[in-house]
Amino acid sequence: QVQLVETGGGLVQAGGSLRLSCAASGSIFSMNVAAWFRQAPGKQRELVAQITSGGKTNYADSVKGRFTISRDNAKNTVYLQLTSLKPEDTAVYYCYAQLSYSADGRFYNHWGQGTQVTVSS
Question: What are the respective helix, strand and coil percentages of the chain, to the nearest 5?
Answer without folding.
Answer: 0, 55, 40
